[in-house]
Amino acid sequence: MSDLEALALKLEARGYRVTPSRRAVIASVLQQQGHFTVDDLLHRCRGAGRATVFRTVRLLTELGVVCRVLLDDGSLHYRLSPRAHHHHHLVCSGCGSVRDLDDCAVTDLVRELSNASGYEIEGHWLEFYGRCAECRQAVAVTG
Ligand SMILES: [Zn+2]
Ligand SMILES: [Zn+2]
Ligand SMILES: [Zn+2]
Hints:
By secondary structure, the protein is an alpha+beta fold. It has six helices and five strands; from the N terminus they run H-H-H-H-E-E-E-E-H-E-H. Strands 4-3-5 form a three-stranded mixed beta sheet, with no helix packed on it.
């Protein structure tokens, strides 16, 4: 069974109809290298409207197939992720590569903040921006 078929079955098991345009969006997501935007998918899936692309990407995010990355220019990107659980990213401002971090490193902070503020904290967003090892090396070589 292809990844596409496996995902279609997963969505159907959760009660979502996998229409031909949703299927096209999923296929396009599976072909992406690196990170991508909803607009990138819109260009590739001519038959699918913006609402369908948004909704399908959100479903894939909920399934843990795709994660959201906020780049340092403020734009929201998505990427195929092997990590289904909540995590953060290292984003290179030189080459644009993104690395998934294994775990959330701020669970203690969230607990303290909740205790101190009385908030029930339901989520947070934290990305790390910088230059990856390859980009740092390239700078060192070329001066
Ligand atoms: Zn880099
Ligand atoms: Zn990720
Ligand atoms: Zn976290």
